[in-house]
Amino acid sequence: MINFFPLAIRFLDILEILLIACIFYWLFILIRETRAVQGLKVLAFLIIASFGAHLLQLYTIDWILQSLWTILPLAFVILFQPELRRVIGEIDKNYILRKFFKQESRLITEIVRVMMALSKEGSGALIVLKQNISLKNYIETGVRINAEVSYELLKTMFTPDSLLHDGAVIIQGDKIIAASCVLPLTQNPEVTIPLGTRHRAALGLSEETDALVLVVSEETGGISITLDGKMRSDLDEESLTEMLTLYKAKETEGFTEESD
């Protein structure tokens, strides 16, 4: 009796098939209604023709088609450069695919750089990193920016002579959404230590939302982080980077309160 299933199908085999199917479906979504669709039709025709010529023993046609396979990859790259650029662009924009291709986010690096620079200069700063709860009401109190997070842009905003110096910068994902935003001040009666307006605003927002708020003290240059109504102060570059990494990983359980 013929065994039609000589090999056992593993879970990893099924997973591999699903992964390949997802990749091909994603590529199809990207190239539909583009010239690449016509190229795929030509490719399918050549595959069928090559298989038919080999099956029917049409040696000359089979030889010609086999010869074409050596130049087809280069021809497709030249003909479909716009589509290839589009695919690469989508990979760069998509957060999940960036993680898949191990492309590091610049967010933490840029924020740490600007916080340390402002701390050394004694320039005050208030930066909000949005998580799940909407900050629409606070965004509307400021100036819309909608720009990629960068050291240069953040540094310029918190320069004392800048019109956007006062108030908070709100960041969502890897974009600066708004600047010069007004935040609510903490109403917690248990806060007995003297705090400046920026620190009270950072605590106030963290009490009402799940946002992570960064503060640079204009008086001392000290760096603080607030989350869930708790504040950690006097952070150095290493501890600041660690806290932001925990934020990006959504591992906030280790955040403990410290006095200013």
Query: For this structure, what is the CATH class of the largest domain?
Result: Alpha Beta
Q: Classify the helix fraction into a percent range.
A: 40-55%
Instruction: State the end-to-end distance.
Output: 80 Å
Number of strands: 7
Computed over alpha carbons, the radius of gyration is 28 Å
H/E element sequence: HHHHHHHEHEHEEHEEEH
> Could you report the average pLDDT, rounded to the nearest whole number?
76
Low-confidence stretches: 100-104, 256-260
Strand order of the largest sheet: 2-4-3-1-5-6-7
Number of H- or I-type helical stretches: 11
How many domains, as an integer? 2
Under the CATH scheme, which architecture of the largest domain would be assigned? 3-Layer(aba) Sandwich
Sheet-strand content, in percent, reads 5-15%
Which quaternary structure do these chains form?
A: single chain
Largest sheet: 7 strands, mixed
Can you identify the CATH superfamily of the largest domain? Answer: DNA integrity scanning protein, DisA, N-terminal domain
Apparent shape: elongated
* CATH third-level topology of the largest domain: YojJ-like (1
Structure description:
With 260 residues, this protein is α+β, with helices and mostly antiparallel strands. The protein has two domains: 90 residues, no CATH class; 142 residues, YojJ-like (1. It has eleven helices and seven strands. α7 packs parallel to α9. The chain starts with 10 loop residues before the first helix and ends in a 12-residue tail after the last helix.
Task: Give a short overview.
The protein is an alpha+beta fold. 50% of the residues lie in helices and 14% in strands.
